[in-house]
Design brief:
mainly beta, five-stranded antiparallel beta sheet, four-stranded antiparallel beta sheet, 9% helix, 38% strand, globular, disordered N terminus
Length: 277
Amino acid sequence: PTSRSIIITEYQEGSGDIDLTIDDPNTHKRAHFTRNSFPIIDENDIAEVTFTSTGDYTNPVYSWNINGVHAGTGNEYTHTFSESGRYHIVLSVFTNSISSDNLLAVGDMHLNVFDDVPQIGDIGPGGGFIFFDKGDFSDGWRFLEAAPEDLRYPQTSLFSWSNVSSGELNTEPDAGSGSHNTARIIAQKDHESSAAYLSSIYTHDGYNDWFLPSLDAIEMMYNELHLNDLGLFGNGYYWSSTASGEGSAWRLRFTNGTAHAVSRSGSFSRIRPVRAF
C-alpha cells in the first residue's frame, strides 16, 4: 500500500476536536472526531459519551480504542464510563476492512471523567486551578483552569505583549475568547514573539492546549483565585489577550485588580496561561 504520513491539524489535546489530514500524493481527505458531552458520573454510577467521526473517505471503517482496549466500530460510538479518571480515546480509520494494510489515519484525544461537577478553586485536569464554569458543555468546553505557575525563563518572568507594536486586531474580552485571541495574535504579520505564543507552547501534566487569557478571564482569575489565596500569583501586572485600539493591550494589576491599556511592545508583564476543558 501507499505509505502515508498523518498530519494532525487544528487539534488541541483534550479540546474534543480532531482534524486528520492524510498527506498522500493522490488524495487529501479529512476526518473529524468529536464528543457530545462533558462526562460526569451520575446517580446511576455511569456517564455516557457519544463519539462521532465524519469524513469524505470511500467505504470507511471506524474503529475505537479506549485505554488500549478495542471498544467498538462505527462512525458513531457511545461508551459508558463507570469510573472517574483520564481516558485515552483512539480512533483508527480503515478503508473497506480492519487491517494494517488498510489503515488510513489514526487520531486520539484524552478525556477526563469526573465523579462530580468540578468547583471553582478545584484542581483541573491540566494541574491548574479552575476559575470559571459557564454552566454547560458547548463548543468543546465548559470550564477554564489557570496554570499552576507563571511562565518563567532563565533570565526573566516579565514579557512584552508582542513584538508587533501596532495594528488592528479582532480580539475580544469575553472569558471564552482567549484561545481565538491567542491565534489571532500569533497570526499577525511580522509576528516573531508574543505573550500569546509563549502561552501556546506551554505544557503541563501532559496538556499542550494552553493560551493567553482574555481580559474578562484574567479578572476572574484575580477575583476567584488570587483574592482567595489560590494560584500563587504575584502582585504585579498580568497580560490578557485582549487588544485595545491599534497599539495597546490590556493587562491587570494584581495588587488591586485594576485594568490598564498599555503599549504592546514597550511594556512588560507576567504571563499565566489558561486552558479550557
